[in-house]
From TrEMBL, chains A, B:
SMART domains: HTH_MERR. The lineage of its organism: Bacteria, Bacillati, Actinomycetota, Actinomycetes, Kitasatosporales. It comes from Streptomyces pakalii. Residues 1-69 form the HTH merR-type domain. This is MerR family transcriptional regulator. PANTHER family: HTH MERR-TYPE DOMAIN-CONTAINING PROTEIN, REDOX-CYCLING DRUG-SENSING TRANSCRIPTIONAL ACTIVATOR SOXR. Keywords: Coiled coil, DNA-binding. Gene3D superfamilies: 1.10.1660.10. It comes from the Bacteria.
Length: 249, 249
DNA sequence: GCTTGACCTTGTCGCAGCGTCAACGTTTCT
DNA sequence: AGAAACGTTGACGCTGCGACAAGGTCAAGC
């Protein structure tokens, strides 16, 4: 038999047979005078076993192991392990499909899919075209994807703030500072009002230490032009101060 | 932000971030004087969206598509397609696990897993140490894995032959011819008795044409030493003759 | 005898999504 | 000042072959 014949007989491609030779899974048969590989029925039987095992789902390495110690014992182990692996994959797929089902249900935001916690928060926030609000939403989305899962509590704690209609005016006052200098007189009062609007529940979620020391806080500040940055820094300082007072009282 | 910071913030590895740069998924940020990449919050937000999408199961190409036209419309299509794909995978896994369950149930043969049809046949065949019988089983296993699924009917048709206790004696007479010449006088009578033992049901499954013309028949013959080959060839010819007589009658 | 087409040969690249060196420069802590 | 922990580019590795390149071989038809 030549390679095309044995491949067709067993139901694999010639390329696969050569691949099995290359990785030492199937021994190279003798050659004819013209250099063609000359296969025997033994080879075909072995190749057929390889095909059966790969069809079940074994990797070529596992096939090699199973063929190596030709007791049937190892096969049992490998199959059991494979079944466990498939069961795990099945669970993973089901979980992902559940996530997908939720996402397909919800209206699609332009920021891509969000966690349910954040989606709920944004749902309750009023519609606005304020750039500062948009930036805030981006920052929340970033925190959402940060992966540590700590965002959920924060989002829940922010719910009263989102429902507070006075926040819109504060956002507009922040927008007005986009081109202002760091010494603008509007900074101090706006920061005070913003800090006052933050509900106490949020304080419990704020991480310890100076806010600008953590990478996240510093990076957020860098995202703002000078006057806005001054406002945000003051708000963060004020909140940190409230955390300290609360911790000692 | 430097690369390690943005990676930790979003929850991916630095290597992944560089990979996204390499494939053009995430634009390269400006560099600091020392050559380090300097990331902004914009980059982090974009990277976070990438992470959310890949976590859902999108390929990087699909992520690129979704980010490209930033309507939410394409995302819906991609997600639906992804869900369909996952559903398909889930079915495949379930089917393979069912196959596995059958295999784990049955006693493990040294020839590896067999189709249920062949396993049933070999279950009903008497135990023997005859080399010819072993070779026969190998050939059947080969046919079993040949993949065209045509083996199942043949195996069912062979059931009476397997249960025929006289077959053992015939196998032994075939074994005795292992070293014999092609002109041995025992060839003709053995071939006749073997052919007679083959039940009529088998004839319906034998493929048309001269048996030695098909690759499989010729190859099987080559697997035998001369005298045994002569026997097998005569049996095949005899069966072909019976097929013809049956077809015309 | 010559061409055509269907085989065969070895060797290499490609695929998805990074992990993991290598070999080297920068920053930072002690 | 030295070490540890960052950063840089570049390249190979993993799975299981498919696809191509650049030929050599063989049977059949003209």
């Amino acid at each position: 038999m030549r390679i095309g014949e044995i491949a067709a007989l067993v139901g694999v491609t010639s390329r696969a047979v050569r691949h099995y030779h290359h990785i030492g899974l199937l021994p190279e048969p003798a050659r004819q005078a013209n250099g063609y590989r000359a296969y025997t029925v033994r080879d075909a039987v072995l190749l057929a076993r390889i095909r059966r095992l790969t069809e079940i789902g074994l990797s070529l390495d596992e096939v090699r192991d199973v063929l190596a110690d030709d007791a049937g014992r190892e096969l049992g182990e490998v199959l059991a392990e494979l079944d466990a692996d498939l069961a795990r994959q099945e669970r993973e797929i089901q979980e992902r499909r559940q996530v997908l089902a939720v996402l397909l249900e919800a209206p699609l935001t332009s920021d891509g899919p969000l966690s349910p916690a954040l989606a709920a928060l944004l749902d309750h926030a009023p519609a606005t075209t304020s750039p500062a609000a948009a930036k805030d939403r981006e920052h929340l989305a970033l925190l959402d994807a940060a992966g540590d899962g700590a965002g959920a509590e924060l989002f829940a704690a922010l719910r009263p703030l989102a429902e507070n209609p006075g926040v819109l005016a504060l956002y507009e006052r922040l927008d007005a500072l986009e081109e202002a200098g760091a010494d603008d007189p509007r900074i101090a009062p706006l920061a005070a009002e913003l800090a006052a609007a933050v509900p106490d529940e949020v304080l419990a979620v704020i991480p310890e230490g100076e806010p600008s020391a953590t990478g996240f806080g510093r990076v957020l500040l860098d995202d703002y032009p000078p006057a806005q940055r001054a406002v945000v820094r003051r708000v963060m300082e004020e909140l940190a101060e409230r955390v300290r007072r609360r911790g000692t009282s």
